[in-house]
Specification:
globular, single chain, mainly alpha, 2 domains, 0% strand
């Protein structure tokens, strides 16, 4: 059974699971989004008394907090007990492209040149992680949700703002890959 769980799964299986969850959420009148959990946690902590943005019925979002907790626990279980030491399989052309920027062939999910402790404690590594995190956080708040919230939830709800946000995410990703990434590395 463990061998079955730890092998790579097909993309279509994930699609079926995500679609099923989205249809159930729509049926029960809920919307999915991880970035809204920060607002819920702030409201539960009492910040709604001081900041109007956090003044809402946070108890209606407990299911989303449970989902967040389950994702954290599930990620821990998957990493500790269900992952293998096999290297990440990516195309040879991608490995060659990354080598041009000084990245070695990946041995884990994140490149060591960015996400190791050694890299994080360099000035360049710290600035890349800090500015990247700030931009992701600001972008999620400014866009009214994160990439997964808009692409999965918003598009399944047929929301025009989510379509516009997803198009913007793709344009930003292409600009980063082809123009900004080569300048940084």
């Amino acid at each position: 059974m463990i061998e079955f769980i730890t092998q790579p799964w097909s993309w279509w299986f994930s699609g079926i699971i995500i679609s099923t969850i989205m249809f159930l959420l729509i049926y029960f009148g809920q919307s999915f989004g991880f970035s809204s959990n920060l607002r819920t946690l702030c409201a539960a902590s009492g910040f709604g008394k001081k900041v109007k943005f956090f003044d809402f019925n946070w108890k209606s979002q407990i299911w989303n907090l449970v989902f967040l907790l389950g994702a954290i626990i599930g990620g821990f279980i998957a990493r500790q007990f269900l992952s293998t030491d096999a290297p990440v399989e990516i195309a040879d052309s991608t490995i060659l492209a990354l080598e041009k920027y000084g990245f070695a062939a990946p041995t884990s999910l994140q490149p060591d040149e960015l996400f190791s402790l050694d890299a994080a404690f360099t000035l360049k590594g710290f600035l890349v992680l800090a500015l990247g995190g700030l931009m992701v956080g600001f972008g999620a708040r400014y866009a009214g949700g994160c990439t997964s919230g808009h692409a999965i939830s918003g598009l399944s709800d047929l929301q025009l703002p989510s379509l516009i946000a997803v198009i913007g995410f793709f344009i930003g990703g292409l600009a980063m890959t082809h123009f900004i990434f080569p300048l940084i590395f």
